[in-house]
Design goal:
mainly alpha; 3 helices; 66% helix; elongated
């Protein structure tokens, strides 16, 4: 973010009293912390599959544990 934008926001909040400025600071800190948590969550979802089984064994397990529960209604 360019310094001019930051300076613009600073000029906008100069008229606030200290209590309101503290509330704003808390909100900014909270948003930064949430952004960090979001990045950590995304990183935890990335990565490679780790398993000692072969691809064929994994496929066999998936097929063995798949259950069809679809019920088809007749039109009669």
């Amino acid at each position: 973010m360019p310094i001019a934008v930051v300076e613009h926001y600073y000029q906008m909040i100069q008229h606030l009293d200290n209590a309101d400025k503290m509330i704003l600071v808390e909100k900014i800190i909270h948003s930064v912390n949430n952004e960090r948590q979001s990045v950590n969550t995304q990183e935890s979802l990335a990565g490679s599959w780790e398993d000692d089984r072969s691809a064929d064994e994994i496929i066999q397990d998936i097929k063995a544990n798949a259950h069809m529960q679809r019920h088809i209604e007749s039109f009669e």
